[in-house]
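Deliverable D4.2, example record:
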Amino acid sequence: MLANPDLIRATDRGLYCPPGDFYIDPWRPVDRAVITHAHGDHARRGHTHYLAARDGEAVLRARLGDIALQCVGYGESVDIGGVRVSLHPAGHVLGSAQVRVEHRGEVWVASGDYKVESDGTCAPFDPVRCHAFITESTFGLPIYRWRPQAELFAELNAWWRDNAAAGRASVVFAYAFGKAQRILAGVDASIGPIVCHGAVQVLNAAYRATDVALPETFAVGDVADRTALRQALVVAPPSAQGTPWLRRFGDYSDAFASGWMQLRGARRRRAVDRGLVLSDHADWPGLHQAIRATGAERVFVTHGYVPVMVRWLTEQGFDARAMESEYGGEQDDGAAAEETPDAAPVSTVAAP
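Output generated by the structure prediction step:
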């Protein structure tokens, strides 16, 4: 039995810790916000004070501008109103963190978004032991099981190589923050030039400022040789699909990188040549692995397939409950709308 069942609770402003009087990833303006990562549904403008992991500082400042931001290293504790708070790697994107909250001997962890497979572009997921764990469930269905990254990148490189030999550019639509950098870090840069949309280039600079190794990338205006453009790998956000910006590459083949590409319907709706099943979120086995590693006696489930995950966890003997939130899943960082297929719920039911 938890001594404080409301150490973190859902409110109309976000996940709130009453003893410390702070919020985690609030979706409305608050005085003190602890931020798990810089995706737009978790890090928003308008808060008075921000606390985040040091690895995410460059990205947060690039996205939110001049904010009152305090950064701490992973595992470093700070006291907020008598509550001990520390941030721990979530393995989602650069600077992503789980928020560990300790008060009077009780420990809760709000995971934000996470994945358990290391990708080399951010600190790998580090499970944190706790009494209560708040987990996402973006891909909380048994159908979602990710293939090894090495296989995916071997296929991507072969596709790019074949297109380059035929004089066709290879356009990959990928979310500008996180997914785009994973693709850049995983491809064989010797095949040809890599051209990035401006929205991706800004985030590439933030990654490089944090000493993440990425291959050389070019803005489209930096490549004068049209022959070279037809051999390029082009990385652009989904919002660039169908825009005049793509005409500069002439004939091209395109792909969309997302966990949602596991579904044929999602690939058809995207109207692309290929679907690359690559996600920055945990798959079905990964969610279970992470939850079990915490040793939590109670699990709160937010955004995604919440009822399915709650039911499965309950059947496994967990005290599992839904927790209401306004977080999304995988999204186009340049757009306000959620980039998920119709079948994928992106908000939870109210907590019982």
